[in-house]
Amino acid sequence: MQVIDTELFGWYCEKVDKEILGAFKQNETVFNQVYESHQWHLEAPHKRLLYFIMYGLLLTEGTPRQRILDIGGGITSLTTLISRKHDYSVMGIGIDPNVKDIGDFKIIPKDWYDFDIDHNSWDIIIANDIFPNVDQRLEMFLEKYLPCCGLMTLSLTYNNGVPKWYKTKRMDDSEILHMLSWTGAQVRMLLKKYQNRLDFSKSEITDFFNNLVKGTETIFPNKRQVCTVSLTGDLHPDHK
Ligand SMILES: C[S@@+](CC[C@H](N)C(=O)[O-])C[C@H]1O[C@@H](n2cnc3c(N)ncnc32)[C@H](O)[C@@H]1O
Q1: pLDDT at residue 12 above 80?
Q2: In this structure, how many other beta carbons lie within 10 angstroms of the beta carbon of residue 234?
Q3: Which residues form the pocket of ligand 1, taking CB atoms under 6 Å from any ligand atom?
Q4: By residue range, what is the domain housing residue 151?
Q5: What pLDDT, on the 0 to 100 scale, is given for residue 103?
Q6: Smallest Cα–Cα separation from 90: which of 138, 125, 55, 121?
Q7: Any idea what the CATH number is for the domain that residue 18 is in?
Q8: How many domains does the chain have?
Q9: How far is CA 220 from CA 6, 46, 63, 231, in A?
């Protein structure tokens, strides 16, 4: 549970990035290097910092095998590694269902909303860089998927600076829509509803909520702010 700031980024660049970048390069093959997400991670240290926070533990030596569902997960050279260590599934609307020779993992080429979760459960659900910047149905997502996981780890993108929006168009109609970035206050308002699922002390949660609305500091070239948060799912042993 943290807001990504320049201090964390400075520490990461100095102490960790060399190893993470090395891992992306070492595991590169002709099959995985063509994916957009892999290229983003090679090019951008801020993407690698997020990767480290969201996936780092899953890649460490001796980590127990987990059932992982990655919503909107990108294919990178480290997908190959994760799929060796875990029962890994990637769900995405843009994903190529015929991905081959990357690793032994399940591809679910679907909008998460349409997926039938009956009889499915996961130790960990990850959603990195999709909510609410790409998909604003975050609350619906939490309501649907928290009941069927042990832990959910999200990176959430918002914008406390000058309001930013995208002009876009309905696919089934000619109507023009304007999709406005969420602010930290909006992210906070939603997360407050789920704060009993944050495994932190009261004062840590208060600090985190304050940081969400605090400033416009950013490490990202497109000026967005990002926080990461883990919520306990209904299958977590401590869930009441
Ligand atoms: C900004 S990209 C992030 C990709 C990857 N997680 C990363 O960090 O490199 C957002 C991803 O979410 C996927 N996506 C968008 N809407 C989705 C939905 N409703 N259901 C599943 N995946 C979705 C897109 O196809 C895309 O791959």
Answers
A1: yes
A2: 14
A3: 37, 40, 71-74, 91-94, 111-112, 128-130, 134-135
A4: 2-232
A5: 86
A6: 125
A7: 3.40.50
A8: 1
A9: 10, 7, 30, 24
